[in-house]
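Sample A.
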Amino acid sequence: MINEEDIMLGNILMAIQVALSIIMIIVVLPQESKQTQTQVFIEDSSSQAYFKPKGKEAFLNKMTKIVSVLFFINAIALVIVMK
């Protein structure tokens, strides 16, 4: 049976989940698609390794990875608490 503490913890985790989803949307939307990036350099794909993302692109890639991991960990915690 779910007690009052589990319900309160579930509400907190749900609020965190909503916040993480909004942050993920904000981080993912400004990124360019891989198709757009490959059109900039029309050379073969082996030379693409030399063009690593810098500045805003690198920051957005790192933030996407961090927020997505936190999102999934929080989702698993939410399932465990509400069980």
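Sample B, a different protein:
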Amino acid sequence: MILLPSWWVPPALLATVLLVDVALSIRPVRFIRDCLHSVRFPEEWWWALLVVKTLAAAGLIAGIWIPGLAFAANSGVIAYFLCAAAAHIRARATGSAFWVNCLGMLALSCVTLALSFL
């Protein structure tokens, strides 16, 4: 098993996208706020999503040099977006935010893992 990414660009790109998501979520822009409300995620827990995404981005970047860390962080991001997809399906919130944002991020996470570690 490869413990370091074969190419540093995919994990760095995913980390950048996650950090942009964090920046947009500090004072959530409308589409993020609408998305979180649509799955009935409590506002008092929105801060936890910022922490999870920031730690994932840090793990992806540090994992470029630390064996196994990028793989673990990338796997965690995939699990996060699988849970987000399940929450959308459960809440029957399968509009454009689900298809573009949630599944788009899941696809990006899966492609990153495939390009970096397969």
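Observation for Sample B: The longest helix spans residues 69-90.
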